[in-house]
Design a protein that fits this description.
Order of helices and strands: HHEHHEEHHEHHEHH
Number of strands: 5
Distance between the termini: 26 Å
Radius of gyration: 17 Å
Shape: globular
């Protein structure tokens, strides 16, 4: 049972690479192909589920719906990623009938929205979710900004509604990696609050980082980077900068 759980979480980790594949596939890739941060996150989820006293898994999906996705995720790979992830998380409760899996689906851009509140992920709910994803998610790409601070703060508050001492908690974060809070100043300040460091100088702000609250609460973050092949071949077309492209220090895989 433990080996099958680990294979499942390796598959979840491979979703990170969906955007970079010329011919997207959900086939399992070697664990060595996943970043160090990604490998650690996968191992942590597997360890939690196999821990004594754990009887539930809470999965919150935080899905980017900003307008930049019209370029970076033109083929709506979020649909395939969400589908595969939901199916595999549902399988946890199938293989372990005593284990309850709950899910919530949220979106963010200039605002945060709960699209589907916490519900048990059984077969009927999975079918309903997959239909909603197929018809709705491809059109969720018109947000006017990408406010990570609002998104993460709100997601943390959503976990507070469901988290318990006997739960494993995972956030699956789909984003194209381009934080944009309307102005350069607002974006910089948001990154300072999220990371506890200045995004330009790397100097500590002296305050607590929002991302550390997730770690302290035991909430595992799986980052799914949405980029198409042209993005990697011609990054200058997408106005990419170091400030909005490199989040390895945050645990993004």
């Amino acid at each position: 049972m433990k080996s099958s759980a680990k294979r499942f979480f390796i598959l979840v980790g491979t979703l990170i690479f969906l955007g970079s594949l010329a011919n997207p596939s959900l086939a399992t890739v070697p664990l060595s192909a996943i970043s160090t941060h990604g490998q650690k996150a996968i191992e942590q989820i597997s360890t939690c589920i196999n821990s004594e006293g754990k009887d539930s898994l809470n999965v919150l999906y935080l899905v980017d719906e900003s307008a930049s996705l019209q370029q970076t995720d033109a083929n709506a790979l979020r649909v395939d990623g969400l589908r595969a992830s939901l199916e595999q998380f549902r399988n946890v409760s199938v293989e372990r009938p005593y284990f309850k899996v709950n899910r919530a689906i949220t979106t963010f851009a200039n605002n945060f929205a709960v699209q589907k509140d916490w519900q048990e992920l059984n077969n009927n709910q999975l079918e309903s979710d997959l239909n909603w994803i197929k018809t709705t998610v491809p059109n969720l790409n018109n947000g006017t900004s990408t406010d990570w601070l609002t998104a993460l703060s709100s997601a943390y508050a959503e976990f507070a509604k469901k988290k318990s001492s006997s739960s494993c908690d995972v956030m699956v974060w789909f984003t194209d990696g381009a934080i944009d809070v309307k102005t350069v100043s607002a974006t910089s300040n948001a990154m300072k609050t999220i990371c506890g460091t200045d995004p330009v100088t790397g100097a500590s702000t002296g305050g607590s980082a929002l991302i550390d609250k997730f770690r302290s609460a035991g909430i595992n973050i799986q980052g799914v980077l949405l980029k198409n092949q042209d993005y990697f071949n011609n990054p200058q077309k997408y106005h990419d900068t170091k400030a909005n492209a490199d989040y390895s220090h945050m645990g993004m895989s």
